[in-house]
Design brief:
It is a single chain. The protein has 673 residues and is an alpha+beta fold. Helices cover 18% and strands 33% of the residues. β35 and β36 form a beta hairpin. The relative contact order is 0.09. The strands form eight sheets. Strands 6, 7, 8, 9, 11, 12, 14, 15, 19 and 20 form a ten-stranded antiparallel β-sheet that branches. An eight-stranded parallel barrel has the order 21-22-23-29-30-31-32-33. Strands 5, 10, 13, 16, 17 and 18 form a six-stranded antiparallel β-sheet that branches. It is globular and about 75 Å long. The two termini are 41 Å apart.
């Protein structure tokens, strides 16, 4: 018996169900699509610490399935567990979302549960790993979303065909509360059949693995387990556990695979009602107030910013606490206004911002308490904090709140109400500047489970805040892009992509970021002045910064009051261009005509495409001529209006010639069908 669902094909043979074909990836053996390890049960293999060959995989028997228009549910059972795997499809994309729910038939401990496992990654099995390529997206502070492509053989998987089961695996385990500190929970697998892109929707620990079993190369996707993240979970009879969701997208090339994932991401993310038109944002932090905003300075900066047409003015870290801003993080936690820096009150300042025709925003780091914040340390009991070995987790002068505790929920909910109703915030930036590590205790069987439960509880609270205050825009941030996963992104309207402070390096992030984040959610800094003195500001610097933010969400910053009238016009012009493509941006798909980029490239090109219309950002960093392999009907420079670029359309490419290095242009074009 065969069951077809979207681009999946299942073979059912008596008591066995096999996911035989996934978007053309055909499994070469009869293994199941789940790996579940129960503590104390035999792992029937000597295959080291690989996720394959778990105790329950061979014992799971097909029980039933239900098939609706966009949902397939498959139920399997062993003597110890029942596993229900849900495959969810969507009308406008080839992407499939998958998760698994495990229910215990008796008291037991789970040590590993996959969301799904698929085979057939190599059409030739483990005899040929040199024809399979993996693109991973590495991360770090200031260097977010950096793709690196290599064959499985280059990554250490030997293509000799001599082994039925190797010890080698290609894997990555994120462990901790910064979900994307080292890598994004997404990859692209490429073979002769095309491309498969996956993402794991976890705001904490997660794990993927590529390896072989019985001559076939498989892909394992899931959360933490006993080996990778110190996760195990005790279930009593009748108790259930649900895995993180994962998504599988398919395409013949990079643009198509990322495009299918982009369409799917729009199904699981929601813009706040106030954010529907993708308003522009000015944030005082970067190259301006940093950690020390003041009422006096805001009254100087805000009237200048208002003249640009920006819609939101955000006061970042420092509007709270009366302690010296140089050590302010040690004291955070009360989230009450600073009378030292805002003597007339924060509300008087946000009212002033509104009087200029802008909406006001404030920053908060809601998951931490500074170790010198005595009031809140006395207010909260020990069980309000994430603890390990009976002690509060303590990192960089911060303790971490546990959102499973009602007292935390009560105080922080009142804090957000105070920020919105008393202080006048219509935009709130949630930051998170440290990782708490493997997890904590407190009503959890393991450290990994403690992290997972607290991470779930935090997102549940965020969702409650966005529902309670629908007129407020909530931004997610974690020292830039250190929590840039789609569990987090499903809860926030937009997210910080980086805290990169050098505008000349931002194209290497902005040029890739649409592969990871929806354009309507990807916040990118634009700081036209930067560290410059007034006499050092150039037109090229302004243009470069504005182009940095045109494909995503513009976060303008820096000393705009330093500019001349003509320079200021370049900023206003960039904002007008940004606003003109906002509707297009919400339905367009990422477009990488020159592929993805990496730090050090002389040129970067990335864009958005909808039908035959496309917009491209092109950055000239070290090479003044850029050749873009596109067959276009026409192309024109949309920004800047000042002549800095010559554009030529030939039969098979667009040629951009810049007058100088370290400048940029934003282009509109019509592509030939």
């Amino acid at each position: 018996m065969t069951v077809s669902f979207k681009n999946l094909t299942f073979d059912i043979d008596g008591e066995k169900i096999v996911l035989a074909n996934v978007g053309g990836y055909k499994q070469r053996n009869r293994h199941g699509f789940l790996e579940i390890q129960v503590a104390g049960e035999n792992r029937p293999s000597h295959a080291g610490v690989k996720a394959a060959y778990s105790s329950e995989e061979k014992h799971l028997k097909y029980i039933s399935h239900t098939l609706e228009e966009n949902l397939l549910c498959v139920i399997q059972e062993s003597e110890l567990i029942q596993a229900k795997t849900s495959f969810e499809a969507f009308d406008d994309t080839d992407t499939v979302r998958v998760y698994t729910e495990v229910t215990a038939k008796e008291s037991l401990v789970l040590e590993q549960v996959s969301s799904v496992v698929i085979g057939g990654i190599s059409p030739m099995g483990n005899a040929r790993s040199d024809d399979v390529y993996l693109t991973r997206f590495f991360q770090s502070h200031h260097t977010e979303c950096q793709p690196r492509r290599a064959s499985l053989e280059e990554l250490g998987f030997i293509s000799d065909g001599a082994q039925q089961v190797s010890q080698k695996k290609i894997s990555f385990a994120n462990i901790g509360s910064w979900s994307t500190k080292e890598a994004l929970p997404q990859c692209i697998i490429e073979n002769t059949l095309g491309m498969l892109m996956f993402q794991i929707e976890s705001n904490a620990s997660w794990y993927y693995e590529i390896s072989d079993r019985d001559g076939d190369i498989y892909l394992y996707l899931g959360g933490a387990d006993a080996t990778n993240g110190s996760w195990s979970k005790k279930l009593e009879k009748g108790d259930s556990y649900r895995t993180y969701s994962v998504a599988l997208a398919f395409g013949k090339d990079l643009n198509e695979a990322v495009g299918e994932m982009t369409k799917y991401r729009r199904h699981i993310s929601t813009l706040a009602p106030a954010d529907k038109n993708l308003p522009t944002i000015f944030n005082e932090y970067m190259h301006l107030s940093w950690d020390c905003p003041t009422e006096e300075n805001t009254r100087i900066y805000a009237p200048v910013v208002a003249k640009t047409g920006v819609e939101y003015y955000v006061i970042d870290c420092g509007w709270h606490n009366d302690e010296d801003s140089r050590g302010i993080y040690n004291y955070v936690g009360q989230w009450r206004e600073s009378h030292t820096r805002f003597p007339s009150s924060v509300r008087a300042t946000t009212d002033f911002i509104r009087s200029l025709g802008m909406k006001a925003g404030l920053w908060i780091e809601p998951e931490v308490i500074g170790h010198k914040c005595e009031e809140m340390l006395n207010y909260y009991t020990d069980d309000c904090f994430i603890r390990r070995n009976g002690k509060r987790v303590f990192t960089m002068g911060r303790y971490f709140l546990d959102y499973r505790h009602p007292k935390v929920i009560e105080y922080m909910t009142e804090t957000i109400r105070r920020m919105v109703e008393d202080y006048g915030a219509e935009y709130i930036k949630f930051d998170y500047n440290q990782d708490l590590g493997v997890g904590g205790e407190g009503d959890a069987y393991s450290l990994g489970e403690g992290l997972e439960l607290s991470a779930h509880a935090f997102i549940k609270w965020v969702n409650a805040m966005t529902e309670r205050f629908p007129h407020v825009v909530f931004e997610g941030c974690a020292s830039g892009g250190m929590r840039m996963d789609y569990k987090t992104l499903s809860a926030f309207s937009l997210i910080s992509t980086s805290d990169q402070i050098d505008y000349l390096k931002y194209p290497y992030i902005a040029g890739n970021i649409l592969s990871a984040v929806l354009p309507e959610q990807a916040a990118v800094w634009s700081y036209p002045v930067g560290y410059c003195k007034p006499e050092e500001i150039t037109d090229d610097q302004i243009v470069f910064n504005m182009v940095n933010s045109l494909l995503g969400r513009m976060h303008l910053a820096s000393h705009l009051e330093y500019m001349t009238e003509e320079q200021f016009k370049l900023v206003k012009e960039g904002i007008l261009v940004y606003n003109s493509i906002s509707d297009f941006k919400k339905t367009a798909l990422p477009y990488f005509p020159c592929g993805l980029t990496k730090f050090g490239d002389d040129t970067v090109v990335a864009g958005l495409k909808n039908g035959s219309t496309a917009y491209l950002a092109a950055w000239c960093i070290g090479e003044k001529e850029i050749r873009i392999p596109i067959r276009a009907k026409n192309a024109s420079v949309l920004y800047p209006s000042l002549p800095n670029t010559e554009i030529k359309v030939s039969e098979n490419e667009i040629i951009l010639s810049f007058e100088r290095e370290k400048t940029a242009a934003f282009i509109k074009l019509e592509i030939k069908e």
